[in-house]
Amino acid sequence: ALSIFGVEADKTVKQMCSEVQTACTALLDTIEGGQDWNTGMTQIAADKTYDAIIKTCREVGKSCIIQSCKSISGNFGLCENIQTSVNRKAIVNRTACWEEVLECVESAGIDSINAITDQQKLFIDEQNGAFYTKLYGTYDIADITNDELETDFDETKSCIIGENGNCIYDICASECGFDGKNQNYTSATSDKCQICRLAEKVWGNCEAHPAISLQNENSHNKIKIPESSEEETLLSWFAKNTNTEKLEDSCRDTSCGPGMISHWDPTTQSSVCVSRTDFTDDNEMCPLDAFWRIQIGNFNNCCKSTTSGEAGYRDSFGNCCLGNLTGRTINGVNWNTTTGYSNPNATPTMLPINTNEVTGTVPENKNGGLCLPESSKFVMAFPLTGTYYGNNDIGFLFCTGTTEGTDPTSTFPSGKTVTCNGNYIIVTKNTGKYILPNYTETLGNITQPTTNFYREAGGQNVCELEYKETAWQWLKGTTNDKESCENQTPVNWLVE
């Protein structure tokens, strides 16, 4: 009856045979054999019910999946394209057909499922009640990928990047009490867990949640293929019939594939998948054929104007200029000088182009020069001394406006008084800093040229180069008592 009528028959079998069991038990009791009968019949019933559940519920699932995927091209025509098929997405997300399989298993009744669980305990993993070892081989609790969905998950510990383990997404984690933080299960023997585990054995597993990000180039989310062909699951059967069993992303939904990331395209008003390599660490869209990047320690930022969206300039030091870039010749600037002078009419020399290798593309007309406003005027050059300016360097003094006055006096600079209707900025020749003269009194609203870099997306954790106490330091925070930002000194930075 079990093999013909399936799962529901088990309940009827017990009712039909109850009188026979009672009579035979009474008979065997007279020869002290009653326990043998009960044990033997329970074992046979469990074996037959387990076999019926697996076979019957597998067929229920297959019929449902074919119904969801069938097209004029075949039984799986609507589920073959990972990127575009919403029908496939419904299968791997379990919004289609999973409930039918779960209801099929539940119809056996909890008594039968409890008996099956006890009878199959040699093949069930004690820590979580799953059949994972039987299906997929040896694994560690750290291979369970459910905790990778948590916002504070450490990506460096991800199972789906590279070959880090036997990755398994537990679809019964909730029913079985999975605790990602403590890496254990608290309800592995509950009735709900046992029902779900039996249905999961029929259904199968992904390596990770179908919607998990695969933006790392060597990431993967495959449908799990059982080690033995005799242990076929619905998902492994589905993968083989859609010719996707060998693909690295066979178990993702219609989100972006490995090495890709979703990006909103304002032109088409839709999300598109673009290469993860097109984004910098501060999450700026930065294709290398149109923009260039500055490498700062372990971080890279996109040199792109935040207002126009155009590629920024690259100054003579290799810094990114987000404002203007003066030409490669500036009236009065003799870049080859080794001594100070104050002749704004001196014949200019060519400012250098930084020859260090660059990541990306620097527009030809945006390479070389200084990050100064167009209105900047050269005032003088002078040797630098002290910790603020730096020793053994030459400072080029500019005024970001008009200059007035040439009265000879005994004061700086060089016997002349020059008034700047704007801000003074000193550019250091050797160290490539943009700094203000170190005034000892408050002289109106004079702002420091901002030199910074971003350590993560959204403009968060910005590091700014500031003079604190006795040295230039990279600092972060908005309070007066800012924290140290990075130990390493960036080679280049953003200048705003």
Account of the protein in words:
- With 496 residues, the protein is α+β, with helices and mostly antiparallel strands.
- It has 10 helices and 20 strands.
- The strands form 6 sheets. Strands 7-8-20-16-17-18-19 form a 7-stranded mixed sheet, with no helix packed on it. Strands 10-11-14-15 form a 4-stranded antiparallel sheet, with no helix packed on it.
- A hairpin with a 4-residue loop joins strand 1 (178-179) and strand 2 (184-185).
- The protein is elongated.
- The model is unreliable at 1-5 and 30-42 (pLDDT under 50).
Give a concise summary.
This protein is α+β, with helices and mostly antiparallel strands and 496 residues long. Helices cover 24% and strands 16% of the residues.
Low-pLDDT segments, ≥5 res: 1-5, 30-42
Give a count of the beta strands, DSSP E runs of length 2 or more: 20
Structural class: alpha+beta
How large, in whole angstroms, is the Cα Rg?
36 Å
Overall pLDDT level: 81
What is the 3D shape?
elongated
Q: What is the helix tally?
A: 10
The largest β sheet comes out as: 7 strands, mixed
The helix fraction, in percent, is 10-25%
The CA-CA distance between the termini, in Å, is 81 Å
SSE string, helices as H and strands as E: HHHHHHHEEHHEEEEEEEEHEEEEEEEEEE
In terms of DSSP E residues, the strand content is: 15-25%
Strand order in space, largest sheet: 7-8-20-16-17-18-19
